[in-house]
Amino acid sequence: MQPAEIVNMFAVPFAFARHPAPEALNQRLLQFALEAERSGGAANPRPLTQRNAQVFESRFDLFRDANPAVQELKRFCWEHLLAVVGRLNGYDRDTLRRLELYNESWFHVTRNGGYFGLHNHPNASWSGVYCVDDGRPNPANKQSGVLTFVSPFLTYGMHMDAGIANMQLPYAMQTAGLSLVPGQLVLFPSWVLHDVKPFDGEALRVTIAFNCWFRLPD
Predict the structure, then answer these.
(1) What's residue 193's pLDDT?
(2) 22, 77, 186, 191: which has the highest count of C-beta atoms within 10 A?
(3) Where do the DSSP E strands lie in the chain?
(4) pLDDT of 140-195, one tens digit each?
(5) Domain 15-153+171-215 fold
(6) Helix, strand or coil, per DSSP, at residue 32
């Protein structure tokens, strides 16, 4: 008997990239973030998402800063984001050149015990997170600082039995967790719910995040 063909009819696209040589860039980004935090004027004045005092969140205008390291990272992020948008939407190079990209961008400095509550990013289509420093997480704590995404298939749990109880990702209704490493970029649809588990580490965990939305003239 010919086995039935299994087809992924619905899917959520995530994209993962690694900076080819992140050490020097990340050192400059770390220095920039810590100096901005110490300046006293860089904090987000209207934080919305649940977090605790161990998390510092900057204003949402990071990529407008002229700092060379910030601009280098922005070019890296936009290069990969536009490639993903083009591939998923079937845009050619001319169409990608005409796309108008808008964004808000910021950084987080997370100290031991810091966490970020469940949220998504309204009024944007794509979001991203870049890891500057993982903060040397405690190897005994596998959930330390894990960026966790929630399955969008909310009606999956209406009935549970042995026919579906043991299915694995991407089919199961479970969270997908990422332990970010320096130089890693994660791109995901802005509507996906996610959080950051409490950080347990020796140093500072520093990440840079952004939301993007687009307009295609004509």
Answers:
(1) 96
(2) 77
(3) 15-18, 55-57, 100-110, 116-119, 126-133, 147-149, 176-178, 184-189, 194-196, 205-215
(4) 999 999 999 998 887 887 888 999 888 888 888 788 999 999 999 999 999 999 99
(5) Jelly Rolls (2.60.120)
(6) helix
Which distant-in-sequence residues (6+ apart) come within 8 Å of 191 by Cβ? 120, 121, 152
pLDDT for position 87: 97
What the block records as the tokens of 60 is 């949402």
Phi, psi of 88 (to 5 degrees): -75, -30
What is the pLDDT at residue 173?
78
DSSP E strand stretches across 134-217: 147-149, 176-178, 184-189, 194-196, 205-215
Q: Are the beta carbons of 33 and 107 closer than 8 angstroms? A: yes
To which residue do tokens 């010919």 refer? 2
Cα radius of gyration (the chain): 19
- Per-residue pLDDT band for 16 (boundaries 50, 70, 90) equals very high
**Element (DSSP H or E) covering residue 28:** helix 22-39
Structure tokens at 92: 């050619």
Break the chain into its structural domains and give their ranges: 15-153+171-215
